[in-house]
Amino acid sequence: MISATIHLALIPAHAGEPATAVLFMLDGLGLMAVSVWGLLKSGWRPALGLLLIANLAAYAYYLAAGLETADAVGLGTKAIEAAALLALVIPQRWSFVALTGTRREVNH
Question: What pLDDT sits at residue 1?
Answer without folding.
Answer: 82
